[in-house]
Amino acid sequence: MKNANHLNIKSDATTPTACLWCKGKLGEVKYHNVKDRLGYVPGTWDLIECSECKSLVLSPFPSTSDIGNYYPEKYNIPSPTQTSGVRKLVSFVESKFLNFLYQKEARALSRKLPVFKKPSIKILEFGCGNGNRLEFFHNLKFDIVGVDMSRGDIEAIQSKGMKAQCIDIQTLPEHFEPNSFDVIMCFDVLEHIPNLEVFFSKILPLIRPGGWMVAGLPAQDSIPVRVFKEDYIALNEVPRHVSVPSVKGTQMFFKRFGLQNLGLLPYSSLSCAMAVGLSLFKSATAYAFYNNEIKFFILFKRVCGLFVLFLSCPVLLLENYFTSHPSRFIVFAQKDELKS
Fold it and tell me: Does the residue 182 lie in any domain?
């Protein structure tokens, strides 16, 4: 299996002293010697718990210069147009399933936020991947543009007639005017960002006064984390996940930037259950199946993960709606109407 052995992974890594989410003091190591679930990046990492908000922060903290190299070529499920043979068929089926899940969450979000009831709004999705959520809002006739650093994903989106650009966060303000968007969304992105404050300083000025910031995240204070511990998919996604927030930590971070009318929405229980299936069958990753020689036992494990998904779904449904800490959640908050 291909890996990143060529990287000098911890050449200038450091040990963090403050929580990325609440700026509280980091306490004890919660999880020791966590390995990359993909087997792509060699080494082990610790996850330190914040003494204030209970979010987790990676240690040693990755080098900013190396972090982009921690992602294999096919990190997520590729578009069927990006693969061939048996993989093309599997990708088609899995993409349809993900499209159903993502659009279900997009539909729930569109019902929750009043801004989506306006006849004409402008939306930016940062980290849009292959554009499943993007497509939902595009079909509703909203003016939406996707941004991602994967050129393959951007080209696949553009081939469907949707607007998308290959841009990184550092140059984002060079491509869009301040106060350009009514909504900016980023799903499963913030846990990958080493400097959240810089990220928000780049992205919040692009939101119009009264507009909304929306983010989808895993939560470390959930039932699956208690069950699987460091084997849970959000935790052993090291070193790509540089932090895993608690719900409290996320709320504190958003409030620190003056965002108002903060609310939470759980991911669909199917999405949460999918993470359970992938945690139980660790070797059944998209990376293992789509990047290497076809091994049908990996495909078999992916099918087994699907069965686990449906079996665990009722438990995750209960957690989503009867606790304050779903395992995966969407946080949304409004920019001050007087603030440009």
Answer: yes
What is residue 24's DSSP assignment? P
> Position of tokens 């959640």?
329
Nearest residue to 302 (alpha-carbon basis) of 293, 289, 314: 289
* Integer Cα distance of 288 and 22 in angstroms: 35
Neighbours of 168 (CB within 10 A): 12
Q: Divide the 340 residues of the chain into consecutive groups of 10 and give the mean pLDDT of each group.
A: 47 74 95 94 95 96 83 76 80 85 89 89 92 87 91 87 90 93 96 93 96 96 94 95 96 95 94 91 76 74 85 92 90 84
- Give the C-alpha separation, 116 to 106, whole Å: 11
C-alpha–C-alpha distance, residues 129 and 103, integer Å: 14
Cα separations in angstroms, 111 against 107, 265, 270: 6, 11, 19
- Give me the number of domains the chain comprises: 1
Is 186 within 8 Å of 126 (Cβ atoms)? yes
Residue 340 domain-assigned (yes or no): no
HSE-CB at 206 with a 13 A cutoff on CA atoms is 23
Residue type, 227: V
